[in-house]
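Below is how a single chain appears once it has passed through the pipeline. First comes the sequence as given, then the structure the pipeline wrote out for it. We keep one example in the README because the format questions we get most often are answered faster by looking than by reading.
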Amino acid sequence: MNLRRAIEKLGIRQKAYKSAFGVVGSPAYLALIDLADFCAAFQVDPFGLNHDGLMQMIGRRQAFFRVFNHLKLSPTELETVYRGAVLRAAERLADQGEAA
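Resulting structure:
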């Protein structure tokens, strides 16, 4: 595959990801925030995670960053996704605390 075709293919892929996830405030954008949270994209791994669990977390992050890298979000949009993922994680921890 020549360089021009590869660049065109990446451009088409980026447009597809942006149309699917890149509209701030859309339901799809909220899905991206949920995906960031589920994949623990901006979190450290819990202490004592075994090999299989670590491999699972690496795979989740790879999947999230596959989408994320194609979006090429602005710093403000990046902050929105990061903040949303962290807030969802905090809410989950609060819910677990109430259940205990």
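The two ends are 57 Å apart (CA to CA).

See the next section for the split statistics.
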